[in-house]
Amino acid sequence: QARLLISVMDSQLDVLQQRLASIGVDLFGPDGGRDFSRWFPDYNRLFGHAQTALGTTSGILANTLVILFLGLLFSFDPRVYRESVLLLVKPSSRDRVRAVLDEMGNVLRLWLVGQLIRIVLMAACVWLALYLLGLPGAFLLGAQAGVSNFVPYLGPILAAIPVGLVAMPLGTSMVIWAVGIYTVIQSIEGYVIGPLILRQAVELPPAWTLVAIVLFGSLFGVLGIALSMPLLAVGRIAVLRWYVEDWLGDKLG
Fold first, then answer.
1. How far apart are the first and last CA of the chain?
2. Which of 101-106's residues contact partners 24+ apart within 8 Å by CB, and which partners?
């Protein structure tokens, strides 16, 4: 399916060229080739942009791998790392800090389970809908639509692009149907199912979630957007337990 999708999306360059040529727009030049370097007279600047983009992409992948392996290492035996942190705390406060850290770990587990449920539901619904529409590579399109939910707000928007490209050879009506159905499914999941799951899991208000996404996204880019919700969930527990309860003395229920 991956090879089929790549072939279909690559063929859309030819389809797009033909459609634009019919209305007098010469997209790829008189030779009909795909030498995009002809569009940029300043090759040094173009190379600089390409080098920057490549460096940014490799940096994102490297950071993702580091976070993934760190998460796996921490998950194998979290008590060892927790006790190492507790050594930095005075003995009289270790029981309290241990309880709060355990609560943070439980919140992270619930968040991860909620995210997995959202990914599976989204992937299954999009796959079934696109399969019934007759789109090629429906399973792969559904899988990428589900995984994209790991990055809130930005991921679902980017996941719609492959759906539209694959539907293009089947006509304008198919593009409208495919993108429209994907939008409906994503809207239901994003505004109804997803918030219900996350509310039960981590009790995050939607407004604070959006603030965290904007803040961490501006500071750390795409990885910040992806990790904004778990960081907000952990930070919420820390503020409630150590600041509101311990420092201010307001005992919450």
1. 52
2. 103/237, 103/241, 104/234, 104/237, 104/238, 105/78
Taking alpha carbons only, the member of 158, 173, 180, 168 closest to residue 17 is: 168
Give the whole-angstrom CA distance, residue 144 versus residue 162: 9
Name the token pair of 164: 């539209």
- Looking at residue 37, its pLDDT comes to 44
Q: What does the block give as tokens for 241? A: 């337990």
Helices (H), 27-171: 43-76, 78-86, 94-133, 138-148, 154-167
Non-local (6+) Cβ contacts of 196 within 8 A are: none
H/E stretch holding 153: none
The sign of the dihedral angle between the CA atoms of 84, 90, 91, 93 is negative
28-37, 38-47, 161-170, range with greatest mean pLDDT:
161-170
What are the pLDDT digits (tens) for 99-154? 999 988 888 888 888 888 888 999 999 999 999 998 888 898 999 898 888 777 77
Sign (positive/negative) of CA torsion 14, 16, 20, 25? negative
Q: Are 217 and 224 in contact (CB under 8 A)?
A: yes
Q: What's the token pair of residue 158?
A: 């980017």
